[in-house]
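Slide 14.
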Amino acid sequence: MKKKVIWIGSAVVVVAAVVAGVAMRGGDDKAMEVQTAKVDRQKIVQTVSATGKIQPKIQVKISADVSAKIMKLAVFEGQWVEQGALLVELDRERYLAAVESAEASVRSAQANAVLVRQNMERADKEYVRSKELVEKNLESAAAYENKEAAFRVEEARYDAARNQVEQAKATLKQARDDLSKTTIYAPMAGTISDLNKEQGEIAIGAQFQEDVIMVIADLSEMEAQVNVDENDIVSVAIGQSVEIEVDALLDQALGGVVTEIANSANVSATGTADQKTEFEIKISVTDPPKTLRPGMTASTEISTRTNESALSVPIQCVAVRTVDQLKMEGEQRADAEARYSADRDGFVEVVFCIEGGKAIAKQVKTGIQSDELIEIVDGLEEGEEVVSGSYRAISKDLQNGAVVTINNDTDKTDET
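Slide 15: predicted structure.
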């Protein structure tokens, strides 16, 4: 009885398996519902996105060349100044004293040079007279040699004295230059866009470290300084048009042009998983509004390539499959390899076309793309009907040669 029960149980399991298999095959034969679109020609603009900051095209950081207390600030932040206008006056007493001391040193060196020159001239006369006496045998050669040596010494002392005068004059020139730098004037016309110091604070000379007192900027010419990923920089060129959105200026799109591209990269978070390699570019803003201010955050779309009449499909139509995934029912791999050529990573770029109620995968070569469309360089003809949805069907579920039904109801929500 136990053996009979076991055989009956086994038979039930086999039957259940067969029924399940039939049910699964029946499920596979059920047509998948898809949405479609036509292959047609449309304008495609390929863009590169980048973010950064707004800054003036021309701005000058004003720092002191000498260290001193700020005695007077002649401007305020936001003020317009003309070139040559007074900006800052520093404490000049120490530098004025240095000038007076240097002037005294010059006078002293000049007086010493006069004295040494007189001694040299006297030694020269004695040397000449001694030479004449030796020729007449009226003076010994030893005396003549001593006077010649004395003259040479005085001549060297005079050269040294003249050098001391020049050195004293150079010191005076430096002291006068330092004194002149205690008063700072505007090097250009512009707006005081940033004021970092107050009257009474110490300005540290720029020879030690950067200590910016203020920034003068020409706010009539602005630019966006943004960073572009290394994978996108090869598509960016000077002269390309740009759409700029500034976070602070809602619903106000600005135009611009790429004017400068860095030759070397900026690498952030080196050696970590977040390491990024980017290139800095500058974009001139066309007709900047008066409300545009330095430091505002800007998002840009750089138009890198445009095709006015590109053979195109919606971007979601293009999928990737392996050659094995593209085999139709009953096919061998060799049959699929005859129709499809995989790239070095083993993938084939395809679009599913509707032929006789089936989705047939066609290998395509793609070109430029926008946010919505992608150019088809080869593999499709204008007017063909291609599968455009759902996303899950195209990216995963849809098999080559599968029976499909078309539902282009615009109210239907696409499956994600």
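Speaker note: Helices lie at 2-29, 93-135, 141-180, 333-339, 391-397.
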